[in-house]
Amino acid sequence: MLCEEGDEVALIPRYFDLLLLLVEQRDRAVTRQEIFDRVWADVVVSDGALTQAIRTIRRVLDDDPRDVTFIRTVSRHGYQFVWAPVGEEADEGPLGDGDRHQGVPAFTKASARQGSDDADPFVPLLDVLLADGASAATEDERYDAAVRLHELGTDETLRRLDERPGHEEARAILRDARWDAPSSGHVPLLSAEGRLRAIADVLVLRARRAVHLASRRWASASASAGLAGLVAGMVGGVALALVPESETGAEVMIALALVGAAAGALGGAGIGAGLAAAESLARSARAAALTLAGAIAGLATGWLAHQLLRSLLGGVFGRDVVALAGGLEGLVIGAAVGAGYAVATRRLSQGGMAAPRGPARWRVALTTGATTALAAMALALAGRHLVGSSLDLMAGTFAGSQVGLDPLARLLGEDSLRPITRTLVSGFEALMFGSGLAFGLTRRPRV
Question: 184-205 burial by CB neighbour count: b if 16+ within 10 A, else e?
Answer without folding.
Answer: beebebeebebeebbbebbeeb
